[in-house]
Design goal:
alpha+beta, 4 domains, six-stranded antiparallel beta sheet, two-stranded antiparallel ribbon, 12 strands, binds adenosine monophosphate, binds magnesium ion
Length: 500
């Protein structure tokens, strides 16, 4: 248990203030990490550590031991969370943290409660046949992509640290083992509610919902029906989140209900990837054989997952089941419109519109159709369009993004005509568009190159370089211009793997 006394201890790396461990005991299983052979600190995210109010001196000294699970910091109450989940549409009643261990929670410098979790820290009662471990490659991928999402302004769990364990893990190959330290607003998922619903634990559902409202949606305590308001608020955050994913070409890859947070943060970066050339049916994940989680399917899958959340919340929404269903249905239906309006608003921004007109949707769709037909790179198209907004001379570079540059002429004429009714000067417009259209995304081939150098040669320089470039995605960084480039044909990565 943490106490006021413990919080003031000068030699504690973390001032833990744990709450999840005080929820009913069936929500989790107390579980300490399993020791590793020879921990080595790959990376500590110092700015994040500062934001969390951690003691950097201690972390620099003991980081390898702490972030591998070998040294349990004072005040930690390690546990594995229980949850269910629909995996590719199939309900699995008991998943839970099979390789992740929550050390505890801290209150950050902004007063926000944040989870500190070790991923790959050894077996738990939820490991089923898994080894409880993580391989270096997926740890680096999660580090790079989650930090890139943060820099892009998209809600996501964060990377606090990565360590090598000095042990190997057996996947298809024998690989170096690693532990990832994840920071989240919380690790409560749609699947956490499903777990309690599946066991018929109505008191538990209420306790979890109350915890979530207190933690993530405190304003809703005053709502007429706080649980219905909670459902609506979660749907709203997810609609906004998925719209943001689409606007940067992000494909999550494994949107199972256990990988969808209640807080609205992106979680679980296993087989995720960013799209290069625009094709709405793009899939990278090797296990997504039917394209269930393809780029353009994500909003619909979000809605499907949220319908599962609605089912779990029904007993709280109304004691009359028919009424509860009616209320929940109205919200899940409205999700479609919410998503569309977030998406349209974001896309208007991407093409430089600060006003709204009826024809905007068509104009956006026409550009997307052209990009698809012409194999245009998603990120470059919008970034280069931002330059055209400020300087007509940039048009040739924009057009060169398309297989047949001349195919863009007609669309550009329509766009300019629309811009003539948009109240902004060209240079202001170019500047705002550049804030909506990143120059740098974690391109898959770059991520793979960084992972390969680390795994094959123990060389983390590409990983570090990529992290640095991606920390300022909207800024031109001339020395790193090559990081903007799409892959050459021989560099193209067609598949990503879950890493489990
Ligand atoms: P994920 O695909 O990462 O969302 O994981 C799905 C489920 O599999 C979760 O319950 C994980 O805890 C579990 N899992 C994934 N990898 C492992 C592993 N190496 N050992 C034990 N459990 C695992
Ligand atoms: Mg998961």
């Amino acid at each position: 248990m943490t106490s006021a006394l413990q919080k003031n201890r000068p030699d504690a790396a973390f001032s833990f203030d744990n709450s999840y461990v005080h929820l009913p005991q069936n929500f989790f299983s107390l579980q300490a990490p399993t020791q590793v052979a020879e921990p080595w600190l790959i990376k500590l995210n110092e700015p994040l550590a500062e934001e969390l109010g951690l003691d950097l001196d201690i972390l620099k000294r003991d980081g390898a031991a702490i972030f591998s699970g070998n040294l349990i910091p004072d005040g930690a109450e390690p546990l594995a969370m229980a949850y269910s989940g629909h995996q590719f549409g199939q309900f699995v009643p008991l998943l839970g943290d099979g390789r992740a261990i929550l050390l505890g929670e801290v209150i950050d410098r902004n007063g926000e409660r944040r989870d500190i979790q070790l991923k790959g820290a050894g077996q738990t009662p939820f490991s089923r046949r898994g080894d409880g471990r993580a391989a270096l490659g997926p740890v680096l991928r999660e580090y790079i992509v989650s930090e890139a999402m943060f820099a892009l302004g998209i809600p996501a769990t964060r990377a606090l640290a990565a360590v090598l364990t000095g042990e190997s893990v057996r996947r298809e190959d024998i690989l170096p083992g690693a532990v990832f330290t994840r920071v989240a607003a919380s690790h409560i998922r749609v699947g956490t509610f499903q777990y309690l619903a599946a066991t018929g634990d109505e008191n538990g559902i209420k306790a979890l919902a109350d915890h979530v409202i207190e933690r993530h949606y405190p304003a809703l305590k005053a709502a007429e029906n706080p649980y219905l308001a909670l459902y609506e608020a979660v749907c709203d955050r997810q609609a906004a989140l998925i719209a943001r994913w689409l606007q940067v070409g992000f494909i999550h890859g494994v949107m199972n209900t256990d990988n969808m947070t209640i807080s609205g943060e992106t979680i679980d970066f296993g087989p995720c990837a960013f799209m290069d050339s625009y094709d709405p049916m793009t899939v990278f994940s090797s296990i997504d054989q039917h394209g269930r989680y393809a780029y353009a399917n994500q909003p619909g899958i979000g809605q499907w997952n949220l319908a599962r959340l609605g089912e779990a919340l029904l007993p709280l929404i109304d004691t009359d089941k028919d009424k509860a269903i009616e209320h929940a249905n109205a919200i899940i239906k409205a999700y479609g419109e919410r998503f569309h309006s977030y998406w349209l608003q974001g896309m208007r921004g991407k093409i430089g519109l600060v006003s709204a007109e009826d024809g905007d949707l068509e104009l956006i769709q026409a550009l997307l159709a052209l990009m698809q037909a012409q194999g245009a790179d998603f990120t470059l198209t919008f970034r280069r369009l931002s330059a055209v907004a400020g300087d007509e001379a940039a048009e040739a570079v924009f057009a060169s993004t398309f297989r047949e540059p001349a195919a863009t002429t007609e669309w550009l004429t329509r766009w300019r005509d629309r811009l003539s009714r948009n109240p902004q000067t060209p240079s202001d417009r170019a500047a705002t568009m550049k804030q909506a259209n990143p120059a740098f995304i974690p391109r898959n081939h770059r991520v793979e190159q960084a992972i390969e150098a680390a795994v094959e040669d123990g060389d983390f320089s590409l990983f570090e370089a990529l992290l640095s470039v991606l920390s300022k995605p909207f800024e031109e960084q001339p020395p790193f211009a090559a990081y903007m480039d799409p892959p050459k044909p021989e560099e193209r990565v067609l598949q990503t793997f879950c890493g489990t």
